[in-house]
Amino acid sequence: MVDGQEFNWRVSLVSSGVLFRTHYGGGIGHGHIMRCLSIASILQEKGFDSVFLLDQKVEDELLDLEKYKCYFLNEFNSREYFEDKKEMGEEDKIIECMKSHNLKILFFDKYLISNELLKNLKDKGCFIAGFDDFGHRNYFYDLLIDHNYINKNQDRESRVLGGLEHCVLDGKFKHSKDTRQLSKANANSDVKLNLFVNLGGGCVLEYEKIILEAFDAMDMNNKFNVYWLDSNKASGLNFENYSKRYIEKIPYVNNMAKFLLDMDVAIGSCGVNAIERCAMGIPSLVFKTVENQSRNYQNLIKKRLVIPVLNKLDIAIKLDELYRSPQVLERESDYCRSKIDGKGVYRVADKIEFILN
Fold this sequence. Notes:
Elements: E1 17-22, H1 31-45, E2 49-54, E3 71-74, H2 90-101, E4 105-109, H3 115-123, E5 127-131, E6 143-146, E7 159-161, H4 171-178, E8 193-198, H5 205-216, E9 224-229, H6 240-243, E10 247-250, H7 256-260, E11 265-268, H8 272-279, E12 284-286, H9 294-302, E13 307-308, H10 312-324, H11 326-339, H12 344-356
Parallel strand pairs: 1-2, 1-4, 2-3, 4-5, 5-6, 6-7, 8-9, 8-11, 9-10, 11-12, 12-13
């Protein structure tokens, strides 16, 4: 009940919880909403509900949001909710949502948040949390999640260190990967490796071209089964020539942990999925595709958890080495899996639970 009006919402008003203000869909991709949903899922287990205020309509049938017990409010379906406040800005819209749902924490996973907005929200009593992708300490945040350190502990009261795995993955899948025999291919074998390509959203067409040029220079058809997660940019490539042979183009992965069980090698960017691949013991050839991945990129390389590549020759050489040397593949897999415990999301949820209580 808001201003005396009753609305058709999928869940009842919650007693206490978190408002996630995040990106969704379009050129941004699903990374932002998925890492927030990971936290929301653990909070649900702890008895706390979450509300999501999104940039656009939740209409992607491939993203199975029904399994999450969250309420999704966005610019499309919120018009009735805000109909008597048509000129409402970002700040007022957030405050209205938090008051209406009796939420205690505002969690930002969104670009271009001004300090003025943060200050005004703080002045109105909001407890503000968010991810620290760039490493810039912002004192308007009460809680920052920093996933660029192996350290599993808290650093000050206001920061949670995710250990490079803030939103991965169900422990049972990680255990299954631990016991799986990865060295299934060698130079004299007919068994092919499974290769996952995931560059995320954004401007990745240039990198997709480099990858396909590298594939064209290799005997991919006899070495790798390629599973290519659609970035919505690949349509600009001459993709059909490849997909008929060894590339399976997939529109979306609903359960990333389960999907990664069968992958042996990956090519990707340095966002959320790079951390997930490490946790599942999948050696990754990586590009830095956007600027906010710089810290991830540098830290992953520094800790020898990924294999950086710059051009098609790098890709061809590294892929061939991993295919021809099962011992190298297994060593790289064991190493990256041993460094990522997959429990970062629980540390974040525990901290939020402490605040909510």
